[in-house]
Design brief:
Blueprint: H1 8-14, H2 20-25, E1 31-46, E2 49-61, E3 64-68, H3 75-83, E4 90-95, E5 107-110, H4 122-132, H5 145-151, H6 167-180, E6 185-189, H7 197-210, E7 228-233, E8 245-250, E9 253-259, H8 260-263
Helix pairs in contact: 4-6, 5-6
Length: about 270
C-alpha cells in the first residue's frame, strides 16, 4: 500500500483539495497480530445504569480506528476505560499488553471538552503541558509547542488568550497538546465537534499522517508496528474513506466490529452478522 506523507505544512495547504480517493491511500495498514488496545467482557455501571455491557473488542496497532454510534452509545466511556481514566466494574482492559496505568506515557487522551487554561495563550498552554510530558520523545512535535501548533494549523505567535478563540481553534490547541507528548496511541473523544467541514478534513488528514510518524525501536531492537489513533464520533461521513476498522456501538454494546468499507454499507440501527 502506498503511503502519502507530505510535510505537515504542505499537507495543510493542500488538504482541502485532497479527494477521498487520495485520503484512502494515506490509510495505514494494521497488523492484526498486534493489538494497541483491547477490552474483554468490559462492563461499567453507574448505580443501576450500565454504560457498558460486557463489551469485547480490539484495535490493531498501527492504524486509524473509529468508535461509531449516537450520543449515549457508550463510546466515550469505552475510550476513557482504555485511557485508564475510569475503573471498570468488571472485565479487562489492556493497552500494549499491559494495564493502561502502566503504559500511560505511551498514549495521549483528548477529551470532548478542550480542558485548556482560558487566561493563557495557546503557546503558554502548550509550554506548560510540554513540561509534564515524558522525556525521550521521538517526533518533531515532542517538547516543541511551536511545531505542535503549526501541525494543527495554528500560528504559535498568537498573543490572544484561549478565552478569545473559537471552539474550533480550541479543539486544535487540544490536539496540539496531545501531540507534544509524542504518543504511540492517540485517543480522541469527538474531535470533530465544533469544527466546520474543512477543518474536520484537515484534522483527519493530520491523524492519518500521524500514523506514519516514526517510532523508536523496542528495547530489544525490534521495530514497532506504528502509531495508532482511536476516535469516537457519530459523524461517519468524516472518516468513512480513512478508517481501517469501525466499531459500531449502541446502548453500551457493540453491534458491529468490521472494516470500514463493510460498516459503511450497514444502515444505522442494524446489527452486522
Amino acid at each position: 500500500m502506498v503511503v502519502i506523507k507530505p510535510t505537515l505544512t504542505k499537507l495543510f495547504k493542500r488538504c482541502k483539495e485532497i479527494p477521498s480517493s487520495i485520503l484512502k491511500t494515506m490509510q495505514v495498514s494494521s497488523n492484526p497480530a498486534q493489538s494497541a488496545a483491547s477490552v474483554r467482557e468490559l462492563s461499567k455501571l453507574y448505580g443501576s445504569f450500565a454504560a457498558l455491557k460486557r463489551v469485547t473488542c480490539s484495535f490493531p496497532a498501527g492504524g486509524f480506528h473509529v468508535l461509531l454510534g449516537p450520543n449515549g452509545a457508550g463510546k466515550s466511556t469505552l475510550l476513557r476505560a482504555i485511557a485508564g481514566l475510569i475503573t471498570p466494574t468488571s472485565g479487562r482492559v489492556e493497552v500494549f499488553g499491559a494495564a493502561p496505568q502502566d503504559v500511560c506515557s505511551r498514549m495521549a487522551y483528548m477529551s470532548h471538552a478542550p480542558m485548556l487554561y482560558e487566561e493563557l495563550t495557546a503557546m503558554e498552554n502548550l509550554r506548560y503541558f510540554s513540561r509534564l510530558a515524558s522525556p525521550g520523545a521521538n517526533c518533531d512535535c515532542a517538547g516543541s509547542p511551536e511545531m505542535a501548533l503549526r501541525a494543527v494549523g495554528l500560528d504559535p505567535h498568537l498573543t490572544r488568550p484561549v478565552s478569545q478563540f473559537s471552539q474550533g481553534m480550541r479543539q486544535r490547541v487540544s490536539m496540539a497538546r496531545a501531540l507534544v507528548g509524542d504518543p504511540e496511541l492517540l485517543l480522541l473523544d469527538e474531535p470533530f465537534s465544533n469544527m466546520d467541514a474543512a477543518g474536520a478534513r484537515e484534522l483527519v488528514a493530520l491523524l492519518l499522517d500521524f500514523c506514519t510518524w516514526p517510532l523508536p525501536s523496542t528495547p530489544d531492537g525490534a521495530p514497532r508496528t506504528g502509531r495508532t489513533v482511536i476516535v469516537t464520533t457519530h459523524q461517519f461521513e468524516l472518516v468513512a474513506d480513512s478508517a481501517a476498522t469501525v466499531v459500531r456501538m449502541r446502548a453500551g454494546t457493540i453491534v458491529a466490529e468490521q472494516p470500514a468499507e463493510i460498516t459503511a454499507r450497514i444502515p444505522d440501527g442494524v446489527s452486522a452478522a
